[in-house]
């Protein structure tokens, strides 16, 4: 397939690029994490979103090579940020299946000279469904390394509450579908319930997809402080990040 050939070439031709979106603590409006979001700068088609090529990368196994590039780039980028800003990197279940993620991360952190507690690994629950036991071993190893684990898109798929105490997560991120549907009292009730659950289980909580001041006010009223969304910033290229560390007026 054309796109597969192009994707192979893209790695070699350096057409992949990381954008970053801040996660802000709204109590002091400071960025505490930047999430790395992959882009493909295609010579003729322009900027391509990961939704358009990650599935192909997963099918073909190219995700292993791409994922290595992503975590290496992200860790190197993070070394120039202030020490209190972490970097979050998304990992595909295919990477966990096809490569030694622990070894990859250990050597990448060492090569970049980045403290392990500045890296957050984001996974979706898709990774927990198959091979739960093997995944748990890998997660424990990552935790021992000092890396933090975040369960992404929580509530969107086959979320089972048992995941939250079976696996050693530090943080959960509520799927943005609940925020866009927040005018619906049922969606808001789900957000509230997840908030209480996170508190009881001692997990940090991020809400993503916040686009308006109105949504923000409802969330902060419920004690939610860690926010990601267009209200603060869209994902932006590395070179444009510094002004983002302070919230735009
Ligand atoms: O960047 P955007 O907001 O369009 O991201 C779309 C989806 O692509 C998100 O679900 C995100 O998790 C995923 N994604 C972005 N970057 C990466 C990456 O580096 N690796 C993997 N596996 N998924 C990514
Ligand atoms: O990995 P994850 O699925 O969490 O990736 C975040 C995705 O959400 C990316 O595609 C990012 O561009 C997108 N995103 C981040 N903030 C917002 C927002 O406020 N609104 C919408 N519609 N999408 C967002
Ligand atoms: Mn994510
Ligand atoms: Na998400």
UniProtKB/TrEMBL annotation:
<protein>
    <submittedName>
        <fullName>Diguanylate cyclase (GGDEF) domain-containing protein</fullName>
    </submittedName>
</protein>
<feature type="domain" description="EAL">
    <location>
        <begin position="1"/>
        <end position="249"/>
    </location>
</feature>
């Amino acid at each position: 397939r054309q796109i597969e050939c192009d994707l192979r070439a893209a790695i070699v031709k350096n057409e992949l690029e990381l954008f970053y979106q801040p996660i802000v603590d709204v109590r002091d409006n400071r960025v505490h994490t930047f999430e790395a979001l992959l882009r493909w700068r295609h010579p003729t088609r322009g900027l391509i979103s990961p939704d358009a090529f990650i599935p192909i990368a997963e099918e073909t196994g190219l995700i292993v090579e791409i994922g290595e590039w992503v975590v290496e780039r992200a860790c190197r980028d993070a070394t120039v940020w202030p020490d209190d800003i972490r970097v979050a990197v998304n990992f595909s279940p295919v990477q966990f299946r096809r490569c030694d993620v622990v070894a990859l991360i250990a050597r990448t952190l060492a090569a970049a000279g980045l403290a392990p507690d500045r890296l957050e690994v984001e996974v979706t629950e898709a990774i927990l469904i198959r091979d739960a036991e093997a995944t748990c071993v890998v997660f424990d190893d990552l935790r021992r390394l000092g890396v933090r684990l975040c369960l992404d898109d929580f509530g969107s798929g086959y979320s089972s509450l048992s995941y939250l105490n079976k696996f050693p997560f530090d943080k959960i991120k509520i799927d943005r579908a609940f925020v866009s549907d927040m005018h619906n009292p049922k969606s808001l009730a789900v957000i509230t319930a997840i908030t209480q659950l996170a508190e009881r289980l001692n997990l940090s909580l991020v809400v993503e997809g916040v686009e308006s001041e109105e949504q923000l006010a409802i969330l902060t009223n419920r004690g939610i402080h860690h926010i990601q969304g267009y209200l603060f910033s869209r994902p932006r290229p590395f070179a444009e990040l510094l002004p983002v560390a302070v919230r735009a007026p």
